[in-house]
């Protein structure tokens, strides 16, 4: 394992853990709303777009790692 591969793998792991932590925060933020209407608004305006963005980052990190490891 080269330094470049190790650094990319470490960055991917940090990104994945950060994405999961942020997604958990988004869900708990939605649940802390006072009324069901406000929870639904937070879901549609915050959680869904945030989940899409986090999913895209997660997918990009995993694809980058797979491409790096396929160079061998």
Structure, explained:
The chain crosses the membrane at residues 48-69. With 72 residues, the protein is mainly α. It has one domain (3-71). Helices cover 89% and strands 0% of the residues. The protein contains two helices and no strands. The chain has helices at residues 3-31, 36-70. Helix 1 runs antiparallel to helix 2. The protein is elongated, with a radius of gyration of 16 Å. The N and C termini lie close together (10 Å).
Helix content: over 70%
Please indicate the count of domains. Answer: 1
Low-confidence stretches: none
Give the overall silhouette.
elongated
Radius of gyration: 16 Å
Main sheet summary = none
Percentage of residues in strands = under 5%
What structural category do the secondary elements indicate?
Answer: mainly alpha
Number of helices: 2
Give the strand tally. Answer: 0
Order of helices and strands: HH
- Rounded average pLDDT: 90
CA distance, first residue to last residue:
10 Å
Keywords: Membrane, Transmembrane, Transmembrane helix
Transmembrane segments: 48-69
Descriptors:
membrane; single chain; transmembrane; transmembrane helix; 72 residues; 2 helices; mainly alpha
